[in-house]
Design a protein that fits this description.
globular; 8-stranded antiparallel β-barrel; mainly beta
Length: 185
């Protein structure tokens, strides 16, 4: 994991150094966003690991507010056992805080469905992250979400300590929307 953090940090630094003078990152009203993220986990000395891949589409209502839909799949690989998978489909809402033209953190939440070939259950939770713009319409995303699972709304409180922590690293692209103003505050 330290190697992934170093690679990500290096990519952000290089993008910042090469594009600092030209990047005007904040999406505008009506902009669309497509993002692909992934994470892999394998504990040393264990017989299993997992791969998580997310694909999301978002639409900016304003430069801050974004509505979207995320489709994720998680596959768990078990040596000498049965592998299994889970998919999730979840609408989300995020608010983006524009700190600089390059660094755009966000906070949000989601509610959706987690399913596989045997079962289905609800999921809800918070999410947060930071988008590091390396070009006017391209960014690297470092994201986190916590997934609570429930089969009844009343059961959400009972399951808050038995959820999933999901960290991911991704790349995203923005397009469309109202023209960005060239004047900076």
């Amino acid at each position: 994991m330290p190697n992934v953090a170093r690679i990500f940090g290096t990519a952000v630094l290089v993008g910042w150094l090469l594009g600092a003078a030209t990047v005007n990152a904040a999406p505008t009203d009506g902009a669309s966003e497509l993002q692909v993220s992934a994470a892999f986990f394998h504990a040393q000395g264990s017989d299993n690991g997992s791969l998580n891949v997310d694909l999301s589409y978002g639409y900016y209502l304003t430069p801050g507010w974004q509505l979207g839909l995320r489709q994720a799949i998680n596959s768990t690989f078990i040596d000498d056992g049965h592998d299994f998978w889970l998919a999730s489909t979840a609408p989300f809402i995020n608010y983006h805080f524009r700190l600089t033209d390059i660094i755009v953190p966000y906070l949000g939440g989601f509610i959706g469905l987690v399913w596989n070939d045997r079962d289905a259950t609800g999921t809800i939770g918070p999410q947060a992250g930071v988008k590091f713009f390396v070009h006017d319409r391209t960014f690297l995303n470092l994201g986190y979400r916590y997934e609570f699972f429930f089969n009844r709304i009343e059961a959400i409180d009972d399951n808050t300590s038995r959820g999933n922590h999901v960290f991911n690293l991704g790349i995203g692209f923005n397009w469309g929307g109202a023209p960005a103003s060239s004047a900076r505050p």
